[in-house]
Specification:
The complex is a heterodimer of chains A (280) and B (268).
Chain A lengths: L3 E10 L2 E11 L4 E5 L6 H8 L11 E4 L2 E5 L2 E2 L3 H5 L2 E4 L11 H6 L8 H5 L5 H14 L14 H15 L3 E4 L8 H18 L2 E6 L2 H7 L2 E6 L2 E7 L5 H8 L33
Chain B lengths: L2 H5 L10 H21 L3 H18 L6 H40 L4 H16 L2 H12 L3 H26 L2 H9 L4 H35 L7 H10 L3 H29 L1
Helix pairs in contact in B: 3-11, 4-5, 4-7, 4-9, 5-7, 6-7, 7-9, 8-9, 9-11, 10-11
The chains are: A alpha/beta (280), B mainly alpha (268).
Chain lengths: 280, 268
Amino acid sequence: MTAISVDNLCKTFRGRKALNDVSLKIEPGEMVALIGASGSGKSTLIRHVAGLVTSDTGASRIVVNGRIMQENGRLSGNAQHLRREIGVIFQQFNLVGRLSVMSNVLVGLLSRLPGWRGNLGLFGRDHKLTAMRALTRVGINEMALQRASTLSGGQQQRAAIARTLVQGAQLILADEPIASLDPASAKRVMETLSSINEQDGITVVVSLHQVEYARRFCPRTIALADGKIAFDGPSEHLTTEFLRGIYGEASEELILPDAPVRGTRPAPVPDLREPVFAGA
Amino acid sequence: MSRSATSALPPRFSGLSALRFALLIAAAALIIAAISDVAPSPQRLIEGAPRMSRLIGRMLPPETDLDFLLRMAGRLLETIEIALAGTVIGVLPSLPVTAWLAARGLGGVPLVNLAAKAFISFLRTVPDLVWALIFIASVGLGAIAGTMTIVVDTIGFCGRFFAEAFEDADKAPQQALSAIGATRVSIMAGAVLPAVMPSLINTSLFAFEKAVRSSVVLGLVGAGGIGQELKVAFDLFQYRSASTIIIAIFIFVFAMEFVTDRLRTRFS
């Protein structure tokens, strides 16, 4: 049973094809990077797999854990149920800042408890222990009782990962999880994702802006360009030259870490013959 | 950004059409007419000044008879009871109803929302004194009519601001919960309510502050509380009693504002 199977997925935003006939398969236990320049369709693809948006109405299908998430532009009837098996991590962490880290993690249990109990916040000792284990796992157990908003970005993202652990997700979709983090925090978050992939066998699909992280943490990379799959294979095959070939000028934003140093140029001299109004 | 666009100054009165000009003139005419019709002229002010000072003279010294003070203390207690009971009874239904509407709003029926909003603005736009007159006509003079007025007023006020708080709540955590298959109720309980709680408490405290002020005034039309005593004192020309009541009201409202201010900083 494949973890994710996408067939002929198309999505049009205001006449522009954000996804153009995308098909792919991801097996359980894989760690796959999704790379591409801004606007290449990475996030759109992840949001479709998570069932947060529906595709164009043509023939298409997204199957997660052997069950249909959406088909021909319509969400499956049990999409809400299926979502409970998918952990989703966002660029902006999406925690409730006023709640403690612990409460934010416990929220991952909401769909597993009888409604009234979770909704009233009546979590038992077992649940709290589960949450603490998850927090220890991602290395922020000492912050369990702090408000989420007091944590750094990287810590908040790790709390979001702990939430997916508590949820018991077998598949984690991470949409640009490190795009707003500093390099050290980004590394910690990628290491955390990589370790739960290796040790727990959880399938991880992570969209990334910089190919360096893909090479380092993900055995397989899928590269999108203009809504199409431009590359799908082992990450070490993604050489700088290869990326130039796919993305041209746009490849620079993907390969910043080892981009060649540009020669210094004299600053452009402003033309003073005509008045220039600031802010015009 | 082209050079020609940056070097040209924008026209000074960009959109001054004939219609706009006419509307501006009309507005100016209306303001001038209003001032000349109802604002006090300097002559009227000068004529009124001696009468005002005579009135103040008759108000002093304030009445300090112990029986009277005790009676007023009782009335003041009734006033605070009207404000407190009215606010609590008004807040209690506002919260679940607006939360439910907001939860529906996440993917619900616009018509129901519209009807509820129209009803709430109706409660709010009819002034409290008018509600008081209506309730006095239906349940008779006294504190019960005052409390009912405060309830209606609070629902109108909280209904609007609770709904706004729910609508302005950060969408990101809600999306995170819906992405992991949470129901609407769970999203409300797990993401929306915790995020908007300070705003709800703040609004409720403002509602109470508003209720304190209106519970004082409501007595003037007979809806119980200290205001009723003030009206009686003026009607019977007992100006010394009136001044005591005015001082009491001042201290009372001031103290209540102090308390709600403290609570607000405590809860935000």
